[in-house]
Prior knowledge:
- By secondary structure, the protein is an alpha+beta fold.
- The protein has one domain.
- Helix content is 35%, strand content 8%.
- Helix 2 crosses helix 5 (197-207).
- It is elongated, with a radius of gyration of 25 Å.
- It starts with a helix and ends with a strand.
Amino acid sequence: MDLSIKEIRRSQEGFTLVELAVVMIIIGLLIGGVLKGQELITNARVTSTASQLEAFGAAYNGFRDQFNAIPGDMATANARIPACAGMTGCNNGGGNSGLSANVGAAGAAAAAGNVAGETGNFFGQLLAADFITGMDGTNTVSFGNQFPTAPVGGGFLVGDSRTGVTQFTAGELRPGIYVVINGVTTAVADGSGILTPQQAANIDRRLDDGVPATGTIIGQATAANCRAAAANLIYDGGVNDVCAIAYRL
């Protein structure tokens, strides 16, 4: 009888405090490793996105050197770029020495000789001339088709500051062509961005001066989404904010 009681009590014994502590430490290490791994992956994507912006700059300049025209605007793309004629997302541009879309405007399908389609033609002509990848060149207004995807998420749009701005401050942008990182192919708006302010700041510091209101990279002008209120000279640290940025080619 006494033996049976001892066996029952032994079977009901739980973990000791030391054993529980070891288990909790192991769980904590596993969670920490997963979170650190996710952070490393995110940082790698941000770095890759910054590199892709630089690659767009090189592609833009290479295209201009080779064809003496602005990609998207070149009016003789079908004749001068062999792959363009067979690509639905590549058409002749308007030939007006610029792009007829605001910086921050929505993406538009490519259209032959139609300046309204120059944002789509921009990437289509670069793709047909083998200057970029990241899209298939079909004339569908989505990332991965007419517009390139970004490693961090979302993708890239394009606009001309001489035409105007949408959700950016005109006085902060120098005249020229800007590639915009956005979360959707529609126009930049509150909540449309894909970058956290910290990620935007990291890209800005990597490629420019780290200030959202000056230089080659300009942050979305809506303070709640991108910039801190203090003179708009730093990116907002709000963890729930999202941000679009524009990079001058």
